[in-house]
């Protein structure tokens, strides 16, 4: 199928060690909005996986195939999902005023593969032009710093970051607590709507380029 004819698709990466915890509740809220607009969704849980850190070996520059040389965890498999996605969500609990360790390792490796493959293949990276949003759950503090780190990942890889009605985080500790943060949950709804709007703009632009160029 022509990629421009298939339904829009969002892949959410859950960096929480609790696959059905508060971070998942935020993703679920956004997925409900996507599914009402016929946007396909896929959830990838990495927070309960053994994600190895980047070795700075630079082998991905030699490979040039959108793969990390470390091939015994979930990262390469997930990169292929990101390649095919129109929208990407990075979701994480706040740990020490930053994303979870699994999410940080994931971002490091996905980002360097994208960057070095661009240099190797002399073309845009697989994250360029996609729509990406970071969301997080905090107990008391550190959420703003976490959001900054998630946004740095997107902005350094050419990914389009949508705005919303407030910063993209909610407050909670025990599973289900975030559902009591009405402002946080409403923000997930607005964020999802803005992602849909931007993904459609990108898709329509791609159709125009395919038609005329």
From TrEMBL:
InterPro entries, per database record: Flavoprotein-like_sf, FMN_Rdtase-like_dom, ISF_SsuE-like
Pfam families per UniProt: FMN_red (PF03358)
Keyword Flavoprotein (UniProt): yes
Keywords from the UniProt entry: Flavoprotein, FMN
The NADPH-dependent FMN reductase-like domain, residue ranges: 9-171
SUPFAM superfamilies: Flavoproteins (SSF52218)
Top-rank taxon, per record: Eukaryota
Protein name per the record: Nad(P)h-dependent fmn-containing oxidoreductase ywqn-related
């Amino acid at each position: 199928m022509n990629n421009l004819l298939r339904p829009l698709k969002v892949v959410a990466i859950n960096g929480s060690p609790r696959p059905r915890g508060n971070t998942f509740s935020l993703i679920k809220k956004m997925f409900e909005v996507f599914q009402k607009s016929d946007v396909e969704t896929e959830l990838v849980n990495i927070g309960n996986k053994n994600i190895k850190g980047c070795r700075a070996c630079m082998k991905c520059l030699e490979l040039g195939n959108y793969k990390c040389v470390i091939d015994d965890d979930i990262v390469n498999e997930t990169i292929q999902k990101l390649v095919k996605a129109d929208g990407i969500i990075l979701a994480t609990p706040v740990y020490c005023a930053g994303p979870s360790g699994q999410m940080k390792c994931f971002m490091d490796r996905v980002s360097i593969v994208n960057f070095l493959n661009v240099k190797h293949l002399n073309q845009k990276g697989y994250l360029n032009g996609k729509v990406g949003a970071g969301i997080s759950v905090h107990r008391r503090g550190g959420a703003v710093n976490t959001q900054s780190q998630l946004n740095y990942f997107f902005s350094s890889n050419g990914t389009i970051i949508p705005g919303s009605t407030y910063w993209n985080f909610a407050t909670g500790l025990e599973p289900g607590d975030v559902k009591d943060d009405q402002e946080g949950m409403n923000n997930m709804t607005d964020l999802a709507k803005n992602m849909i709007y931007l993904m459609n703009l990108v898709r329509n632009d791609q159709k125009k380029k395919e038609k005329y160029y």
